[in-house]
Amino acid sequence: MTAIPAPSSQLPPQVEIFIVGAGFGGLGAAIKLQEAGERDFLCIDRGGEVGGTWRDNSYPGAACDVPSQLYSFSFAPNPNWSHSFSRQPEIQDYLRRVGRQAEVLDRFRFNVTFESAAWDAETDRWRIETSAGPTTARLLVAAGGALSDPKMPEIDGIEQFTGAVFHSSQWDHELGLTGKRVAVIGTGASAIQIVPELAKQAARLDVYQRTAPWVMPRRDVAYRPWQKWLLRTFPPVQRLARASVYLAREATVPMFVALPGLGKLAARSGIHNIDKAISDPVLRAKVLPHFALGCKRVLLSNDWYPALTRSNVQLITEPIRRLTETGIVTGDGTERQVDALIVATGFLPTELPIAQQIKGTHGQTLSDAWSAHGIQAYKGSTVAGFPNLFMVVGPNTGLGHSSMVYMIESQLAYLVDAWRTMRRHDLATVEVLPEIQQAWNADLQRRMRRTVWHTGGCRSWYLDAHGRNVTLWPRTTYTFRRLTKRFDLAAYRSTALADRPAASRRELDA
Ligand SMILES: Cc1cc2nc3c(=O)[nH]c(=O)nc-3n(C[C@H](O)[C@H](O)[C@H](O)COP(=O)(O)OP(=O)(O)OC[C@H]3O[C@@H](n4cnc5c(N)ncnc54)[C@H](O)[C@@H]3O)c2cc1C
Predict the structure, then answer these.
(1) Closest Cα partner for 5 from 47, 58, 51, 53?
(2) Most buried among 6, 286, 397, 447, using CB within 10 Å?
(3) Which residues have CB under 6 Å of ligand 1?
């Protein structure tokens, strides 16, 4: 086992802004705050470097499924992407480079885990506990990621299985899988990238499927040297390329939120993708989805279906009953021997660990605040009862059709404008009004009712235990951008520094 390196150093006793997470969200927050003139911030991450999703998901075949021209920061265009859908190492390199070039990394601490934060009304600050000790901050930015905590399935007998078991986001690169008998559980976004790669190495690959996903062709191209030259030499060309991807993606919104019938048209391309690769009627029946396109994440791949036709690959749709010491037993009683089990069952976006860790004005946790109506926030960012807390990729900011980096940049504009507003008006605190938050979420849930995520006949990870969609944004991303462009102070209860107890003023002056 590799030893976990010691935290890079102790934390300062106080900072103005404390950021949890160094993925696109936390790194972007640091860069945008610095651009706005704020240097007194600290960003921590439990991992060893920036990257978040792209540091952790290093499985074979990992790549983005939104073209890189759009799946990258607008303020840090990269003319050198090798493909339209970049592979994980390239995206991770990009994030490292962006952090280095922005000269923010001196205020990052890696291998430091956020443990808790409690609002201190005496000082108007967050009291924060981390694995590298305590600190306090005026603003807490929660950018811990919606897809950063792996979801492990509960399978009887998993503790007695003697082979290797790991989640797709915690790939064991020490373990060679060449010539081994491998099982992959899941047929979601990660599995469809892993399976075609593993199929080339494993002696036998068993793929356990609960629900057949919609898999559309991936129109990936390798950029030629002259194309990179063009993008490098004429930045407006790259901006045009980005805009065209953006518009093409945005044009699909009605299919998800207003006219799910449109999905039937698009589904033909998915069926064609199956037809091209699979002639065996039994396998075709297994891979044919039984819900409307878009209800679950639409996946992109040219090699998923061909991989399933290989002689060393078997798609198993019988439910898993239990594990033995050396194999997997399915509902029909069959036991298949395996050396390694890869769990590609996704993440926990509706059960965020920070919900237990952050305590607001009356000592209530986010979990307590969300117990009655589920996870919710105002503009995916702020929560009533939790002053000066800003979430990045908070509730209902996820997308089924476009780049999360676009949503993240919208949220960062909101955060930075909030901070500027607090400075301009000498405010100690801002806390969204409960009735504003309630109205925002009532509107979201009303819009959700006619979306394909609710009417499409599937049960996806977008929904919480009560069947509410608390993860996705049900409008255009442009609308979200417009609504988060400026911090709307009128939606907040605020307190002026001058009216606050001396302790609060002293800490700010310090
Ligand atoms: C395999 C995969 C592929 C994806 N592909 C796409 C795509 O193509 N297009 C798209 O738009 N989106 C994609 N996504 C979604 C992706 O998560 C977002 O696009 C984006 O990377 C989220 O950035 P983030 O900063 O919010 O979160 P993350 O990248 O998850 O970063 C969060 C960071 O917080 C840290 N953290 C969490 N908890 C703690 C704690 N308690 N203490 C300290 N640190 C903590 C984590 O270590 C992590 O580094 C994909 C997700 C996955 C998992």
Answers:
(1) 47
(2) 397
(3) 20-26, 44-47, 52-53, 57, 64-66, 71, 113-114, 143-145, 147-148, 190, 392-393, 403-404
Q: How many CA atoms lie within 13 A of 428 on its CB side?
A: 23
Specify the 3-state DSSP secondary structure of 340. strand
Q: Provide the whole-model pTM.
A: 0.95
Instruction: Report CA dihedral (171, 174, 178, 181) to the nearest 10 degrees.
Output: -60
Q: 56 C-alpha vs ligand 1 centroid, how far in Å? A: 9
Q: List pLDDT tens digits, range 99-135.
A: 999 999 999 999 999 999 999 999 999 999 999 999 9
- Phi first, then psi, for residue 283 (nearest 5°) are -70, -40
Please tell me the residue having the least CA distance from ligand 1 atom 18: 404
pLDDT digits (tens, 9 = 90+) for 32-87: 999 999 999 999 999 999 999 999 999 999 999 999 999 999 999 999 999 999 99
Nearest CA to ligand 1 atom 16: 53
Give percent helix, percent strand, percent coil of the chain, each to the nearest 5.
35, 20, 45
Atom 7 in ligand 1: residue holding the nearest Cα: 64
- Expressed in angstroms and rounded, the spacing between residue 339 Cα and the centre of ligand 1 is 29
Contact 354, 149 (CB under 8 A): no
Alpha-carbon distance of 434 to 411, in angstroms, equals 20
